[in-house]
């Protein structure tokens, strides 16, 4: 499985790019939004990728972040949503917009994507709304846009015994990631901070996705 490619942009099409990786050219299909964010031909780019394999087809789809890639995976798990429809939704909304639409149950935002009707948009929201907090948490934890010049991350000293952050650091990271996700949803910093603080106070050991989910419940309109 090809999960990530880094190389020189040789060509930019209307829905794809040709990426030269060590002398081998990969055609990678991308959303309109991702295409606009990629550098010009001749410059260096990095994309997370998903490979679709069929009897008569091999196609690579590219994403700027792991969060975007995860939404693509989840969107294509919905009956009636293929790779083309998924890329259309991501092209219109972006990964943060998809998170917001699903967390708020806003199927009309999903329907704005070309080729996605109201029934299909409602099915997407109904099937994926409970998964929104977990994907939103990726935005702060590991889903940021990949930096082309970023050095490889240091590996753990032992694959069987990864280092654990101190409890206070872990809570602070969870709090920061939850605040970032709620901010992406449009909540004001003050109300988001209060909701996250209350959610953590009620369940200090909760992971980021759970904190986001509980904070959203606290922020939901009453009555």
TrEMBL record:
UniProt KW keywords: ATP-binding, Cytoplasm, DNA damage, DNA recombination, DNA repair, DNA-binding, Helicase, Hydrolase, Nucleotide-binding
Ranges for domain Helix-hairpin-helix DNA-binding motif class: 73-92, 108-127
Example of a GO biological process term: DNA repair
SMART domains in the record: HhH1
Principal cellular location given in the protein's record: cytoplasm
GO CC entries: cytoplasm; Holliday junction helicase complex; Holliday junction resolvase complex
Record-linked Gene3D superfamilies: 5' to 3' exonuclease, C-terminal subdomain (1.10.150.20), DNA helicase RuvA subunit, C-terminal domain (1.10.8.10), Nucleic acid-binding proteins (2.40.50.140)
Ranges annotated as spanning the membrane: none
Localization annotation: Cytoplasm
Segments for region (Domain III): 172-223
Region annotated Domain I, chain positions: 1-64
GO molecular function: ATP binding; four-way junction DNA binding; four-way junction helicase activity
Keyword ATP-binding: yes
UniProt-listed Pfam families: HHH_5, RuvA_C, RuvA_N
Domain comment quoted from the record: Has three domains with a flexible linker between the domains II and III and assumes an 'L' shape. Domain III is highly mobile and contacts RuvB.
Protein family (similarity comment): Belongs to the RuvA family.
Function: The RuvA-RuvB-RuvC complex processes Holliday junction (HJ) DNA during genetic recombination and DNA repair, while the RuvA-RuvB complex plays an important role in the rescue of blocked DNA replication forks via replication fork reversal (RFR). RuvA specifically binds to HJ cruciform DNA, conferring on it an open structure. The RuvB hexamer acts as an ATP-dependent pump, pulling dsDNA into and through the RuvAB complex. HJ branch migration allows RuvC to scan DNA until it finds its consensus sequence, where it cleaves and resolves the cruciform DNA.
Quaternary structure note: Homotetramer. Forms an RuvA(8)-RuvB(12)-Holliday junction (HJ) complex. HJ DNA is sandwiched between 2 RuvA tetramers; dsDNA enters through RuvA and exits via RuvB. An RuvB hexamer assembles on each DNA strand where it exits the tetramer. Each RuvB hexamer is contacted by two RuvA subunits (via domain III) on 2 adjacent RuvB subunits; this complex drives branch migration. In the full resolvosome a probable DNA-RuvA(4)-RuvB(12)-RuvC(2) complex forms which resolves the HJ.
UniProt-recorded name of the protein: Holliday junction branch migration complex subunit RuvA
Gene name in the database record: ruvA
């Amino acid at each position: 499985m090809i999960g990530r490619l880094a190389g020189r942009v040789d060509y930019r099409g209307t829905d794809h790019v040709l990426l030269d990786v060590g002398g081998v050219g990969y055609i990678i299909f991308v959303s309109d939004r991702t295409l606009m964010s990629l550098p010009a031909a001749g410059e260096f780019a990095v994309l997370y990728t998903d490979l679709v394999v069929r009897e008569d087809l091999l196609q690579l789809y590219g994403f700027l972040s792991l969060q975007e890639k995860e939404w693509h995976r989840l969107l294509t798990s919905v009956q009636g949503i293929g790779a083309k429809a998924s890329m259309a939704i991501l092209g219109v909304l972006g990964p943060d917009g998809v998170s917001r639409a699903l967390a708020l149950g806003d199927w009309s935002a999903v329907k704005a994507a070309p080729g996605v009707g109201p029934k299909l948009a409602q099915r997407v929201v109904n099937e994926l709304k409970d998964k929104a907090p977990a994907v939103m948490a990726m935005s702060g934890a590991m889903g940021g846009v990949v930096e082309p010049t970023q050095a490889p991350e240091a590996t753990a000293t032992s694959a069987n015994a990864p280092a654990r952050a101190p409890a206070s650091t872990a809570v602070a990271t969870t709090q920061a990631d939850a605040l970032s996700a709620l901010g992406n949803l449009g909540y004001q910093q003050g109300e988001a901070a209060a909701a996250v603080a209350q959610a953590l106070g009620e369940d200090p050991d909760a992971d980021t996705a759970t904190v986001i989910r509980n904070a959203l419940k606290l922020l939901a309109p009453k009555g």
